[in-house]
Amino acid sequence: MIVVTGAGGQLGRLVIENLKQHVPADQIVAGARSPEKVADLGVEVREADYDRPETLKTALDGADKVLLISGNEVGSRVPQHTAVVEAATQAGVSLLAYTSAPKADTSPLILAPEHKATEEVVRASGLPYTILRNNWYIENFERAIRQAAQTGVYLGSAGEGLVAGTTRADYAAGAAAVLTGEGHENRVYELGGDVAFTYADLAAAIATVTGKDVTYTDVAPEEHQSALLAAGVPEAMAGFVVALDANTRDGLLAETTGELSRLLGRPTTPLAEGVRAILA
Fold first, then answer.
1. Environment class of residue 21 by beta-carbon count within 10 Å: exposed (0-12), middle (13-18) or buried (19+)?
2. What is the number of other CB atoms lying within 10 angstroms of the CB of residue 87?
3. Distances in whole angstroms, Cα of residue 186 to Cα of each of 9, 22, 192, 279
4. pLDDT score for 229
5. Confidence (pTM)
6. Contact 167/224 with Cβ under 8 angstroms?
7. CATH topology of domain 2-134
8. What architecture does CATH give domain 139-163+194-254+268-279?
9. Which residues face 247 on adjacent strands?
10. Residue ranges covered by each domain of the chain
């Protein structure tokens, strides 16, 4: 039996749908904080609340493999993830997979510290593990992509920094391949798109999809933050976006390894196709 925690999120739902293409639905469990949100997935649903460890023990009961999808509550993720790892240890699973961040154990990426700490907890558990270090999701740019499609300007402060990103669906398919395949124990995969892109490339893709002129305008971080605040972006989120652009400018998301396309057995989704899906 395969249990996917965080199944109510966008990535989790896609992983479940991919798993159903490889194994019978009665061998899949969707673990979610709000079970009613995943009742439509056509698999067994169990409550799995990262903040309530007692639900995790029940959710993982009888599990053979578990996918721990990282939580989205920055600052709370290490204890949340630790609770899942402890439940997986009690269940004696044969594989624990975890969605991490690029080079989480060595990178100064703003997102890395909680992922690094979780990876350490996973390794210390003694369970066979697979670390899925997902690069950026194209969908994370959705707000900026939609705005650029309307205004003709993609504003950022990443310079010519590269992003080896791809679609959320590609990462979900990669996770499903690991959960249903063989030989992935105690492996760390650096996953991302086959072709890294700059924000200028992203603007060009938006132009291709919309048929309108769209250009990338690179500004100083302070100007970028001011523009985000003026557009109504909350201060904490604006600060995060600017910090991430700085990380991008420094090349922290640039590496293309080909590991995701090898897991998929096909190329990753082209940038323009990912943008088209967002704007559809």
1. exposed
2. 26
3. 26, 22, 19, 38
4. 95
5. 0.96
6. no
7. Rossmann fold (3.40.50)
8. Alpha-Beta Complex (3.90)
9. none
10. 2-134, 139-163+194-254+268-279
